[in-house]
Amino acid sequence: MSITALMPRQPVSALNVALTAGGRFVLGAAPGERFDLVVFYRGLHCPICAKYLLELERLAPEFARRGVSIVAVSSDDAERAAAMAVKIKAAALPIGYGLSLASARQWGLYISASRGKTSLGIEEPALFSEPGVFLVRPDGTLYYGAVQSMPFARPAFQDLLAAIDFAIAHDYPARGEYAGPL
């Protein structure tokens, strides 16, 4: 089976997930002034995800100052997502849950099968998506995307802030959009 690839400057897949704080995150319903930053994480079982989301929570005001709305999403159920929100003391970072694996695949995310308990002693779900980071323009088109097949080596949020600053200052276009013959 092939993995779907989103294309820069083209519409992204729909995203509509419940939030641990109540309500729903519906991509495009109330977009950020410049971008929506959608961070897909593996789930409560992943110690690297918790550390990564702690950093995003810490930098949330910096993203907001740049006109970037943020959300972190996993295929975890409500209970596990709420536990992650507590673990990272989520106040500024909305935590979405219940991402279907079909939707994860539409976003081009890799899917992994459980290998049992992690180093934290938490059971992995039978199937779950691997990480991905996306910047989506207010018009619903992809500006930036990165997916990983492993939990490590993710884009650093501080680097992403610098890239956003550059993109804004130079009106830098989305790249990687060519899909013609080679």
Descriptive notes:
This protein has helices spanning 47-65, 78-87, 101-106, 157-170, and strands at residues 16-19, 24-26, 35-40, 68-73, 95-97, 111-113, 127-129, 132-136, 142-147. With 182 residues, the chain is α+β, with helices and mostly antiparallel strands. The strands form 2 sheets. The chain has a 7-stranded mixed β-sheet, with helices on one face. Strands 6-7 form a two-stranded antiparallel ribbon. It is globular.
Topology (SSEs and partners):
Elements: E1 16-19, E2 24-26, E3 35-40, H1 47-65, E4 68-73, H2 78-87, E5 95-97, H3 101-106, E6 111-113, E7 127-129, E8 132-136, E9 142-147, H4 157-170
Parallel strand pairs: 3-4, 4-5
Antiparallel strand pairs: 1-2, 1-5, 3-8, 6-7, 8-9
Summarize the structure.
The protein is α+β, with helices and mostly antiparallel strands and 182 residues long. The chain contains 4 helices and 9 strands, in the order βββαβαβαββββα.
CATH classification, class level: Alpha Beta
Q: What fraction, in percent, of the residue positions are helical? A: 25-40%
Secondary-structure arrangement, i.e. CATH architecture: 3-Layer(aba) Sandwich
Query: How many structural domains?
Result: 1
Total number of strands = 9
Characterize the main sheet. 7 strands, mixed
Strand order of the largest sheet: 2-1-5-4-3-8-9
Question: How much strand content do the residues show?
Answer: 15-25%
The CATH superfamily is identified as Glutaredoxin
Number of helices: 4
H-E string: EEEHEHEHEEEEH
Structural class by helix and strand composition:
alpha+beta
Radius of gyration: 16 Å
The separation of the N and C termini measures 23 Å
Question: Which residues sit in consecutive blocks of at least 5 with pLDDT less than 50?
Answer: none
